[in-house]
């Protein structure tokens, strides 16, 4: 089941976007009708009104409603408290306009306000249940009927009136229905979006897990697999010290790769500690110390930096010192080990793993010092400045 | 004979320090020990030449306050701690500790550090050197690139011979670089009587000139 909060938020967002477009469109239609159809009628039929002022005021009020709605939609705001007072004002202006039409022109061409009121009402009832719009529209017809009936319907036939009213109302009603339907469609779309998103996330996780496995296997295939194959076929003798050393190095390498999948704050230190633990389990006195601040180091560089340290920790006899120094200019992983020939032999196998990391070694008496240095951060920083 | 008071709440640590001091040539006398800094304030600890202070008393917050009070009273304090991090080392040095040693370094460096402290000579163990060599704070003293290299190599190798070999310097030069850095640090930051003594001694010995500071 989708988490309702997330879903509701998404549906709300979609509805808001669709409603906004719909309101803008309706406001545009209203303004087009007011300006293109009704204003010429109003100006041309000045003689048909007892007073012209209420006609103009009604026209201005309807236009203001349309413009106000368009601005509110653009700003992403819904109606405020003024919605229902505005509905009453529109109905009052409509009544005033109807009252100033000469009786013989009622419901005729000069009675332009009769049909247009519905558009203003559609705009003002946006986002409300459909029934409210219908009630308000029926209220408008009722008021007009009460105003018209005493004088007797003169100009058009009753059927003509009904026809005109139905035509305008059908457009207005369908707009209102469409707005309600949009809300429902948005909820459905949000559901579909959420299911799709879940599906995509699952696929991405599976892909990345698979890629990690392939990558780990590829890393081990070149070194661990031949060793295992040699041991299996009997080509390599477990009694041979060199073979045992290779096994220790491969074990450290595997431990390091496994450590890389752990979610930790500082993967480089985590790598090294994993290898230090292995050495300690062999009874080696391994000291690890680090200085400097955390740096984000790419994974291939991380592996290359710890390669020599892993080999050193796997081969150390009694004591080993592992140190890490991180500065913005360079990252250095250094080991001082008491296993001089073993580590020197192991280094010939691993040197040149990555171009970005330089490995150097110094032998002094019964100790060997190996330093792996990466200067990538400094290069990147200079590149960034330039 | 150099006298020492050990402030540490672990009996094993105190016993270890006593054994190392007894085995030193010439021997160092541990006059008193205790789990709180009271041992350093009351007789016979109040007149000891050097205070070895554990930063992690009562397993609570680091005892920076105790360190500051001892330093302000003109005591030579060597911080001897389990904390092996950058910030602790730099903070202790700022407060005015004579030196900062992690417990892993004790066996190789504590006796030498005590002897140096008693004679107002600088002493920078590898862990502290690592912290100084990666110090990027804006108010740090200005160090020469070579000095920074020596600090970092000393941290990596723990062997002056190896540092000398790696950087193609004489052992004497390596020592000089380490001492000059320590003096530069003693010369900045919060003033303390012990820092002043360290700087004065360095100028007397010709390790640094007044112009360099």
Distance between the termini of chain B: 33 Å
- The gyration radius over C-alpha positions of chain B equals 16 Å
Principal-axes shape call of chain A: rod-shaped
Helix content of chain A: 55-70%
| Number of continuous helical runs of chain A | 12
Radius of gyration of chain A: 41 Å
In DSSP terms, counting alpha (H) and pi (I) runs of 4 or more, how many helices of chain B?
10
Mean pLDDT of chain B, nearest integer?
Answer: 87
Kindly report the average pLDDT value of chain A. Answer: 82
How much strand content do the residues of chain B show? 5-15%
Spatial order of the strands forming the largest sheet of chain B: 2-1-3-4-5
Largest interface: A-B, 19 and 21 residues
Question: How much helicity do the residues of chain B have?
Answer: 40-55%
List low-pLDDT spans of chain A.
Answer: 379-386
Q: How many strands of chain A?
A: 5
Structural class of chain B: alpha/beta
Biggest sheet layout of chain B: 5 strands, parallel
Strand order of the largest sheet of chain A: 1-2-3-5-4
Poorly predicted tracts of residues of chain B? none
| Biggest sheet character of chain A | 5 strands, mixed
Total strands of chain B: the figure is: 5
Describe the structure.
The complex is a heterodimer of chains A (386) and B (213). Chain A is an alpha+beta fold and 386 residues long. In chain A, 67% of the residues lie in helices and 10% in strands. Chain A has a five-stranded mixed sheet with strand order 1-2-3-5-4, covered by helices on one side. In chain A, helix 1 runs antiparallel to helix 2, helix 4 runs parallel beside helix 6 (158-221) and helix 9 (267-281) packs parallel to helix 10 (299-315). The longest helix of chain A is centred in the middle third of the chain and has 64 residues, at 158-221. The relative contact order of chain A is 0.07. With 213 residues, chain B is of the alpha/beta class. Chain B is 50% helix and 12% strand. Chain B has a five-stranded parallel sheet with strand order 2-1-3-4-5, with helices on both faces. In chain B, helix 6 (126-133) runs antiparallel to helix 7 and helix 7 (145-157) packs across helix 9. The N and C termini of chain B lie far apart (33 Å). The chains are: A alpha+beta (386), B alpha/beta (213).
């Amino acid at each position: 089941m989708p988490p309702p909060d997330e879903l509701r938020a998404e549906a709300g967002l979609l509805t808001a976007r669709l409603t906004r477009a719909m309101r803008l469109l309706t406001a545009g239609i209203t303004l087009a009708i007011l300006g293109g159809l009704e204003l010429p009628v109003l100006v041309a039929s000045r003689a048909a009104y007892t007073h012209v002022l209420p006609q103009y005021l009604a026209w201005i009020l309807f236009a203001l409603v349309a413009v106000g709605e368009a601005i509110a939609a653009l700003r992403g705001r819904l109606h405020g408290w003024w919605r229902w007072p505005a509905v009453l004002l529109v109905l009052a202006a409509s009544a005033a306009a109807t009252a100033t039409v000469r009786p013989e022109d009622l419901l005729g061409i000069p009675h332009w306000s009769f049909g247009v009121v519905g558009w203003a009402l559609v705009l003002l009832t946006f986002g409300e249940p459909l029934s409210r719009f219908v009630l308000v529209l029926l209220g408008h017809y009722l008021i007009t009927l009460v105003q018209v009936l005493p004088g007797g319907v003169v100009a058009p036939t009753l059927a003509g009136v009904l026809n005109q009213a139905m035509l305008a109302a059908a457009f207005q009603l369908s707009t209102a229905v469409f707005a309600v339907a949009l809300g429902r469609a948005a909820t459905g779309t949000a559901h579909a979006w959420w299911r799709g998103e879940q599906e995509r996330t699952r696929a991405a996780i599976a892909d990345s897990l698979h890629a990690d496995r392939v990558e780990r296997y590829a890393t081990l295939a070149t070194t661990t697999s031949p060793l295992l194959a040699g041991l299996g076929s009997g080509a390599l003798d477990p009694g041979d010290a060199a073979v045992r050393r290779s096994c220790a190095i491969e074990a450290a390498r595997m431990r390091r790769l496994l450590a890389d999948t752990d979610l930790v704050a500082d993967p480089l230190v985590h790598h090294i500690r994993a290898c230090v633990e292995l050495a300690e389990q062999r009874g080696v006195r391994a000291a690890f110390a680090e200085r400097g601040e955390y740096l984000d180091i790419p994974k291939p560089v991380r592996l290359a930096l710890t390669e020599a340290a892993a080999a050193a920790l796997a081969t150390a006899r009694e004591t080993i010192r592992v140190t890490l120094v991180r500065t913005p200019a360079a990252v250095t992983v250094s080991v001082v080990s008491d296993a001089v020939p073993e580590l020197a032999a192991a280094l010939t196998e691993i040197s040149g793993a990555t171009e970005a990391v330089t490995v150097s070694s110094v032998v002094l008496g019964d100790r060997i010092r190996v330093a792996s240095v990466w200067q990538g951060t400094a290069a990147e920083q200079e590149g960034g400045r330039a | 004979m150099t006298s020492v008071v050990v402030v540490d709440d672990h009996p094993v640590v105190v016993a270890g320090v006593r054994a190392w001091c007894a085995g030193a040539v010439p021997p160092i006398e541990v006059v008193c020990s205790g789990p709180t800094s009271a041992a350093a304030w009351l007789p016979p600890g109040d007149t000891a030449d050097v205070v070895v202070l554990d930063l992690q008393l009562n397993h609570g917050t680091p005892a920076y306050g105790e360190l500051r009070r001892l330093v302000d009273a003109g005591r030579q304090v060597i911080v001897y701690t389990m904390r092996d991090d950058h910030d602790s080392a730099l903070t202790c040095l700022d407060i005015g500790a004579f030196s900062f040693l992690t417990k892993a370094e004790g066996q190789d460096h504590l006796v030498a550090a005590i002897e140096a402290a008693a004679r107002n000579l600088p002493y920078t163990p590898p862990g502290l050197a690592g912290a100084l060599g990666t110090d990027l704070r804006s108010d740090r003293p200005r160090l020469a690139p070579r000095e920074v290299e020596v600090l970092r190599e000393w941290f990596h190798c723990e062997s002056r011979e190896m540092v000398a070999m790696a950087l193609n310097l004489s052992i004497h030069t390596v020592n000089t670089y380490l001492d000059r850095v320590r003096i530069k640090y003693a010369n900045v930051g919060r003033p303390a009587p012990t820092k002043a003594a360290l700087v004065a001694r360095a100028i007397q010995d010709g390790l640094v000139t007044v112009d360099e500071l």
